[in-house]
Amino acid sequence: MTAASVLRAAGAPMSPFLRGMEEARFWASHANRAELKAFALASFEAMAPRDQTAFLRHISEIEVAA
């Protein structure tokens, strides 16, 4: 925890207890850039092809902040 604090890292996300998306967003708000990229890619790769397709459709429909 000390090293994570010094490196401004959130560490591994915890398993969601009740509100998965809310807890994921909370973790992401504390994660550093490297953590966000690593977990985003690993999560995408772990998805079933059908879910990957739905995810890609979703992100292509939202406006990305510049």
Structure description:
This protein starts with a helix and ends in a 5-residue tail after the last helix. It has helices spanning 2-6, 20-30, 33-46, 49-61. It has 66 residues and is mainly alpha-helical. The longest helix has 14 residues, at 33-46. The mean pLDDT is 80. The protein is built from four helices and no strands.
Question: Topology of this structure?
Answer:
Layout: H1 2-6, H2 20-30, H3 33-46, H4 49-61
List keywords for this structure.
single chain, 66 residues, mainly alpha, 65% helix, globular
What is this entry, summarized?
The chain has 66 residues and is an all-alpha fold.
Mean pLDDT: 80
The value of Rg in angstroms is 14 Å
The helix/strand class is mainly alpha
Number of helices, where a helix is a run of at least 4 consecutive DSSP H or I residues: 4
Poorly predicted spans: none
Span between N and C termini? 32 Å
Largest sheet: none
Q: Which outline best applies?
A: globular
Oligomer: single chain
Q: What is the total tally of β strands? A: 0
Percent in helix: 55-70%
User: What is the strand content?
Assistant: under 5%
Give the SSE order as H and E letters.
HHHH
